[in-house]
Design goal:
Blueprint: E1 10-13, H1 17-28, E2 33-36, E3 50-51, H2 56-62, E4 72-81, E5 84-97, H3 100-113, E6 117-119, E7 136-138, E8 150-158, E9 166-171, E10 174-180, E11 185-193, H4 202-212, H5 216-225, E12 228-236, E13 241-242, E14 251-252, E15 258-259, H6 267-286, H7 292-322, H8 324-335, H9 341-347
Parallel strand pairs: 1-2, 1-7, 2-6, 4-9, 7-14
Antiparallel strand pairs: 3-5, 4-5, 8-11, 8-12, 9-10, 10-11, 13-15
Bound molecules: flavin-adenine dinucleotide.
């Protein structure tokens, strides 16, 4: 889209859920957008690929709702610890299952069709002459933090049989989710405490981490089913919660703004919702109706108020799910039919 007189361009760095959906929504409002992505589409990403908590209205407002029309509808969940089934339940609201390989590619195509300037395969390096400035939005996902103890791993398993649309397996030092996506595939994605003694790569790394968590039967299921090796990916070194935006003069959306623990299956929804919060403010800035510092401070206020509660609850829950003591407490509550699953599910979205 060519520059329009009297309209400020928006420049987005990062073509994930937040950056691409923001870009499409701004183009729909005739605002010229340039989006720079370090990798190229399509590509696999570490993600549970389970979308829950975002409304159809939000997706519609962003101009991407139809891209999810054929996503799998997920209705049931079952949670397990190392000894077996802890509880199973219908999901309070149906969730969506679609690979990032497919979803991000579709959004990138929509962005380009709408006339967006999409630059792929070019990492923004933040050199002095490229310092974030007015009209500049960072949607670069999880910032790398070397002090993090966590590693995320994922792979697609064609035809792996499931006992529920979403299986969550809680192990000694991490958890793994299995969720249905397109073409009869199952996405296996887990978050594990990093171990120095695991040297395996690809799908074997995933099975080895699962085994090291005490989930031997699950590791056997994964090995027996076999992964699509191209889909194997890993990510390490990130922290949860609000990211250190105080030091940033940039407008940060999605995970770059705040990271919710993955067990919630709400990170992508938060990325869409943060883009939705940003659209009217960036549109007003672009048309010269709102000064950049005001757009930035209003966005931060709105995002803090919208996400504060779920971030606090899920950060409090994360250690419960990822430690043996917490998991034993969970099993006990479930056996006594005292586990408020529906309430926790709603409170974390
Ligand atoms: C193990 C794990 C499981 C998860 N499971 C789920 C789940 O089931 N459901 C769910 O909703 N969420 C889940 N999440 C969270 C979800 O993946 C994120 O919340 C979501 O991807 C955030 O979207 P985003 O657009 O902010 O960032 P991303 O999707 O990470 O996109 C950021 C983009 O920016 C690009 N980029 C980064 N740096 C630069 C640079 N310098 N220059 C140019 N481009 C750059 C990257 O290449 C990337 O494409 C999970 C996360 C993990 C770690």
């Amino acid at each position: 889209m060519a520059a329009i007189e009297g309209v400020n361009d928006i420049r987005i760095v990062g073509g994930g859920i937040a950056g691409l959906s923001l870009g499409v929504a701004l183009l729909n409002r005739n605002i010229p957008v340039r989006l720079q992505e370090a990798s190229s589409f399509p590509r696999h990403r570490v993600c549970g690929e389970f979308i829950s908590g975002v409304s159809g209205e939000t997706l519609q407002a962003l101009g991407v709702r139809d891209l999810l029309n054929d996503a799998e509808r997920l209705h049931s969940t079952a949670w397990y610890d190392r000894t077996g089934l802890v509880f199973s339940a219908p999901l309070p609201e149906p969730a969506l299952g679609i690979s990032r390989y497919r979803l991000d590619q579709r959004m990138a195509e929509r962005f380009a069709e709408k006339g967006g300037d999409l630059i792929e395969g070019e990492r923004f390096r933040g050199r002095k002459e490229e310092k974030p400035s007015q009209g500049f939005v960072l949607a670069t996902g999880r910032p790398v933090r070397t002090e993090s103890h966590w590693i995320g791993l994922k792979a697609h398993f064609p035809g792996l049989p499931l006992e529920a649309d979403l299986e969550m397996h809680l192990g000694e030092d991490g958890y793994l989710g299995l969720s249905r996506i397109e073409n009869g595939r199952v996405n296996a994605c887990g978050l594990f405490r990093k171990r120095g003694d695991v040297s395996a790569k690809g799908e074997e790394a995933l099975a080895t981490y699962v085994e090291a968590c005490g989930l031997d039967r699950l590791a056997g299921r994964l090995r027996e089913s076999g992964a699509d090796s191209e889909s194997c990916s890993g990510v390490s070194a990130f922290l949860f919660g609000a990211q250190d935006r105080a030091k940033e003069s940039a407008f940060c959306i999605g995970d770059r703004g705040s990271i919710i623990p993955p067990f919630t299956g709400n990170g992508m929804s938060m990325a869409f919702q943060s883009a939705e919060l940003a659209v009217p403010l960036l549109a007003a800035y672009s048309k010269g109706e709102l000064a950049w510092p005001d757009a930035l401070s209003q966005y931060r206020k709105r995002a803090t108020s919208k996400f504060r509660r779920r971030l606090a609850i899920s950060r409090w829950m994360h250690p419960i799910l990822s430690t043996p003591i917490g998991q034993a407490m969970l099993s006990n509550l479930s056996r006594k039919h005292l586990l408020p699953f529906g309430m926790i599910y709603r409170a974390t979205r």
